[in-house]
């Protein structure tokens, strides 16, 4: 989950991390990554060899799984626009601390369920690429990009992109945090504005689309060790793999100087916090574990594997991910509750986030019910649950 960054060498490479084994939360038919691994690109190039601002290459035909949650096709200037279906996304993010630049080389395998021009999104500038944003009816801020050609169902296509990364073109963006020999990065997802999921940084489709994600994160020029926080499987320095049931609102990735963090564990909880908060990370991890236990007894099993990843920060903001959350101290319980509503049962579309938000905001009432008192929590844990009860105040909840 949390690995110090050192320069690359076989001798210094950390041991393989423990697997972040999120269990599958079915939202549609399974697509097996093995279907792609056997595919050979006709021109023998790899994704690393393509450096154009945007290229689309037809790929070997593979069956596409229909996505029942996709919106119906719409028409734009005589073109039938359909929801693009992302099957897998892999690539590399390079953080050049000396030059204060981030560069992405990514390769997306995409398809469609019905013939048309696939819509997708990426809130980073692509220069004079053919993939300009267009309004598909979502209004200002909710524009999406179209591929430069229509696709037929039954085929998969590989989209290779190479582009620089900076603050995304969205409402309330979070810039890359450059310091003297350091860098800070956070996917900073939010339900509160269009384009605030992974499309801020990576080419993805709509938020109901499930896809596997694999990123190599490299930092050069850093003057001190850095750490990566992610709810995926982290190998070495650092290849991070997120499971294929994740969507664009599932995956957490943060990078920070290791010296700026403290960490603690309790039961299934792996918690990090900004060191400047001055909190006891073990105590906070115990508090999160108590919430998990209480809500598991009330709502049913926790469905994100054997781990819950939490990061506490000074911001009043908070955000839920699959089996993970970034939150203020006050909002920790709220974000844990989202493991059932929001990231257990997911919103069907980007406009449906209010439903799980309403349920989660009201969900704190559960802990005052007799069922919680019967849940077998230790006295100290119950005390902490009560203590947090009156602190909602001005928290801005995502
Ligand atoms: Zn929320």
* Residues in helix, %: 10-25%
Report the bound ligands by name, code or SMILES: zinc ion
Which sheet architecture does the biggest sheet show?
Answer: 7 strands, mixed
CATH homologous superfamily grouping of the largest domain: tricorn interacting facor f3 domain
Unreliable stretches:
1-67, 371-380, 385-397
Strand content: 25-35%
Q: Could you say how many structural domains there are in total?
A: 2
Strand neighbour order, sheet with most strands: 2-10-6-5-13-16-15
Give a written overview of the molecule.
Helices cover 14% and strands 29% of the residues. With 398 residues, it is α+β, with helices and mostly antiparallel strands. It folds into 2 domains: 2-259, tricorn interacting facor f3 domain (Immunoglobulin-like), CATH 2.60.40; 267-397, Neutral Protease, domain 2, CATH 1.10.390. The strands form 4 sheets. It has a 7-stranded mixed beta sheet, with no helix packed on it. A 5-stranded antiparallel beta sheet has the order 1-14-17-12-11, with no helix packed on it. A 5-stranded mixed beta sheet has the order 3-4-7-9-8, with no helix packed on it. A hairpin with a 4-residue loop joins strand 5 and strand 6. Helix 2 crosses helix 6. It is globular, with a radius of gyration of 21 Å. It starts with a strand and ends in a 9-residue tail after the last helix. Zinc ion is lined by residues 334, 338, 357, 360, 397-398.
Name some characteristics of this structure.
398 residues; alpha+beta; Immunoglobulin-like; Neutral Protease, domain 2; seven-stranded mixed beta sheet; five-stranded antiparallel beta sheet; 6 helices; 14% helix; disordered C terminus; binds zinc ion
């Amino acid at each position: 989950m949390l690995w110090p960054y050192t320069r690359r060498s076989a001798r210094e490479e950390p041991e393989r991390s423990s697997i972040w084994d999120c269990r599958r939360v079915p939202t549609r038919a399974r697509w097996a990554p093995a279907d792609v691994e056997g595919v050979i690109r006709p021109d023998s190039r790899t994704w690393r060899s393509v450096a154009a601002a945007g290229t689309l290459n037809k790929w070997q035909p593979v069956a596409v799984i229909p996505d029942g949650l996709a919106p119906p096709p719409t028409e734009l200037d005589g073109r039938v626009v359909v929801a693009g279906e992302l099957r897998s996304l892999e690539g590399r993010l390079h953080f050049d601390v000396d030059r204060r630049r981030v560069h992405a080389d990514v390769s997306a395998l995409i398809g469609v369920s019905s013939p048309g021009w696939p819509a997708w999104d990426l809130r980073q500038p692509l220069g004079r690429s053919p993939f300009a944003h267009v309004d598909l009816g979502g209004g200002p801020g909710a524009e999406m990009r179209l591929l430069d050609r229509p696709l037929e169902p039954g085929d998969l296509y590989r989209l290779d992109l190479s582009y620089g990364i900076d603050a995304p073109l969205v409402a309330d963006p979070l810039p890359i945090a450059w310091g003297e020999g350091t860098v800070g990065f956070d996917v900073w997802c939010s339900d509160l504005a269009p384009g605030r999921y992974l499309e801020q940084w990576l080419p993805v489709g709509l938020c109901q689309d499930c896809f596997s994600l694999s990123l190599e994160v490299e930092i050069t020029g850093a003057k001190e060790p850095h750490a990566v926080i992610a709810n995926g499987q982290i190998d070495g320095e650092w290849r991070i793999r997120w499971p294929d049931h994740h969507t664009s609102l599932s995956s957490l990735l943060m990078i920070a100087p290791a010296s700026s963090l403290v960490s603690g564990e309790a039961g299934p909880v792996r918690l990090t916090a900004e060191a400047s908060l001055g909190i006891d990370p073990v105590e906070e991890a115990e508090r999160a574990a108590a919430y998990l236990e209480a809500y598991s007894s009330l709502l049913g099993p926790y469905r994100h594997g054997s781990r819950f990843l939490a990061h506490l920060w000074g911001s009043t903001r908070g955000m839920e991910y699959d089996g993970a959350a970034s939150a203020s101290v006050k909002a920790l319980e709220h974000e844990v509750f989202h493991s059932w509503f929001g990231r257990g049962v997911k919103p069907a579309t980007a406009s449906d986030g209010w439903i799980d938000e309403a349920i989660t905001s009201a969900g704190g009432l559960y802990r005052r019910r007799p069922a919680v008192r019967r849940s077998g929590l230790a006295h100290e844990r119950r005390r902490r649950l009560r203590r947090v009860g009156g602190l909602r105040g001005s928290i801005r909840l995502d």
